[in-house]
Amino acid sequence: MKARLLCLLTLTLTLAVALTARGESAAKSTSTAAHGDEILDDAQLAHASGARLYQHICQACHMPDAEGAVGAGHIPALARDARLASAQYMAAIVVNGRGDMPAFGPRPDYTDLEAMDHVTLSDAQIAAVINFVRSHFGNRYRDRITTAEVTAIRRRQ
After folding, report:
1. Domain residue spans in the chain?
2. What class, spelled out in words, does domain 2-156 have in CATH?
3. Which positions ≥6 away from 123 have C-beta within 8 Å?
4. Do 68 and 138 meet the contact criterion of CB atoms below 8 Å apart?
5. pLDDT at 11
6. Per residue in 93-105, is it b (16+ CB within 10 Å) or e — as a string?
7. What residues in the chain have per-residue pLDDT under 70?
8. pLDDT of residue 33
9. Residues 6+ away with beta carbon under 8 Å from 46
């Protein structure tokens, strides 16, 4: 539970910084976002690559090198992870969450503060970040999950 709270607090801080960054000029935002050193705004996030999605969301817990972390809890490594051989397994976890991993699929059952803290990714964004992680960090899985497959997994849950 401590790891989930830490992850949610990190994600909340990241979102707060992103909202603050909206006040910057469009020119500065465009120029620095192209270099990957600024948090993406909603419009940029909607069209971000799997790499950028990982950088701006996932690495807060799983770390920039995908090696995970141990501290207030245990965040598993995604680097060289044999469990990621199944893209469907990974999609089910990203959509629904598991243990301290928050769900990134729609959660209509969340209300009040839960709803405010919840980050929902589209099925296309989930597919993009899964395909990125499965082909980087020492993972060499060549098959790709499609947006339609993520949608089907989400609907089965």
Report:
1. 2-156
2. mainly alpha
3. 147, 148, 150, 151, 154
4. no
5. 53
6. bbbbeeebbbbbb
7. 1-40, 106-118, 157
8. 40
9. 122, 125
